[in-house]
Amino acid sequence: QSCPGLGRIFSVLFFQKNGVSNGTLYKKTFIEHFEQAPMYVAVFTFVGFAVGTIFGYLRDFMRAWGLEKRNIAAEREQQKDFVPLYQDFENFYTRNLYLRIRDNWNRPICSVPGPQFDLMERVTDDYNWTFRFTGRTIKNVINMGSYNYLGFAETDVNALKTVTVELEKYGTGVCSTRQEMGTLDKHVELEKLVASFLGVEDAMVFGMGFATNSMNIPALVGKGCLILSDELNHTSLVLGARLSGATIRIFKHNNMQSLEKLLRDAIIYGQPRTHRAWRKIIILVEGIYSMEGSIVRLPEIVSLKNKYKAYLYLDEAHSIGAVGATGRGVVEYFGMSPNDVDVLMGTFTKSFGAAGGYIAGKKDLVDFLRTHSHSAVYATSMCPPVAEQIIRAMRCLMGLDGTTQGLQRVRQLEKNTRYFRRKLHEMGFIIYGNDDSPVVPLLLYMPGKIGAFARRMLEKNIGVVVVGFPATPITESRARFCVSAAHTREMLDTVLNALDELGDFLHLKYSRYSKSSHPELYEESRLELED
Where is the Aminotransferase class I/classII large domain (predicted)? Predict the structure, then answer.
């Protein structure tokens, strides 16, 4: 969707009563920013990739003729007639483009990933083909990349006292699946707590967040079913959909017209060739999209799924704990009932500082998954100390520990998020996503600026995550910040000052509309949208 003069900036009005149209589905202002960069930025981005590709072919030519050392592994003579293990372009991109900035990923951390962490210093002597450790530790790097939204990734002895007790009682592993000898009383306790926290009948927990999606979606749908998936869904959702054998159709990100057209066509035409009715139609969406920072337009999606009698699968990996007045995710954020969503999924790897995931909803749904889920049948159960860490964090959020610390963390995260986003807008950066999303993508665009940005930030003792093609569209390379409740105002100001300076140095302040001495005006915008 677009709006002339302001790039793609969404502003949808929220009112008190539920209804059919956008204006009666929401209860507060909902603003998302997707400003388009000037045309010259896109042109220079393509030029950058073109220059990199040309030099890549030149270096391949030099390697083939022995003019440059071939560092990459080569196939043996006996394998010359084998089909290549990697496709040509994938291999070309890795050795000629990715390797130029490879030093910005997979950096080993040697401390808890809290608001600050320690980093093992490494250097390369062969242009990122290999690395060696210097033995030096870079101390107190400000962590702007971990998903530690509520600050529960911590090493405080008093906070982890119950986790220590469970470690001594149960040990580190279960060594069995849930259906065999792997269901412990801690799992039962955790599942009851998750169901209570979400306000649903029942829940089931799993030891791996990624597998919660990829191994459970095939149990819910199969051949003869239709999956309608948002184009920006996480890989775990995509993999689960593909493994299910169901027909998959993609709708444009958060675009209700695109989704409704697919739903209407599915009802009218049915399955291809036979035109029989679909056995099930299920909509797959995320609460917060981890690469865009946008929030799902849940009230409209629920309205559509009710209208066309479809099912809704909501992945709250990044939103549970991070949004909502008490951290209960996008369902609470929009003031809706958990019963409006058929399958509630989330992970414990982010806001809860642990590992694993959950599926929650009606008791019939959860009982079905206990029998048919691939994770329940084949995967090892969640280890008890991790389960206790989740229980500790969730009880804190619910106030069951006798304190208001959990609520304070949720409110602090909201304050930090709005402050950080507002300041970036004022500086003139293009950032994506919702004003309430702690995932903050800052657009870099040009491939040469990805490495320069991350290296310069590390020199200032700030750790960031940078992302480029093919993880993003080729013209939308970015740095992705994750704001935490554990960040102090001084830490955020240090990062913002570094960004202000680096934005001028690398010419990253592309925004044409967001510089303002009155940032509150963004919340007062009332724009008519175009489809």
Answer: 139-499
Bin 171: left if φ > 0, else alpha if -120 < ψ < 50, else beta.
left
pLDDT digits (tens, 9 = 90+) for 336-367: 999 999 999 999 999 999 999 999 999 999 99
State the Cα–Cα distance between residues 446 and 100, nearest whole angstrom. Answer: 14
120 forms beta bridges with 137
**Would you call 42 helix, strand, or coil by DSSP?**
helix
pLDDT of residue 527: 34
Concatenating the DSSP letter of every residue in 468-486 gives -TTTS-TT-EEEEEE--TT
272: tokens are 């291809």
Which pair of structure tokens corresponds to residue 51?
A: 């220059």
Distance of alpha carbon 295 from alpha carbon 333, whole angstroms: 10
Q: pLDDT class for 156, splitting at 50, 70, 90?
A: confident
Name the DSSP class of 2. Answer: B
Tell me the pLDDT band of 17, cut-offs 50, 70 and 90.
very low
Segment 247-254 long-range contacts (CB within 8 Å, at least 24 positions apart): 247/271, 247/272, 247/278, 253/289, 253/292, 253/294, 254/32, 254/230, 254/294, 254/296, 254/297
For residues 137 and 185, give the distance between their C-alpha atoms in angstroms, rounded to a whole number: 41
Both tokens of 284, joined, read 């797959």
CA distance 295 to 300: 12
Tally of residues, the chain? 531
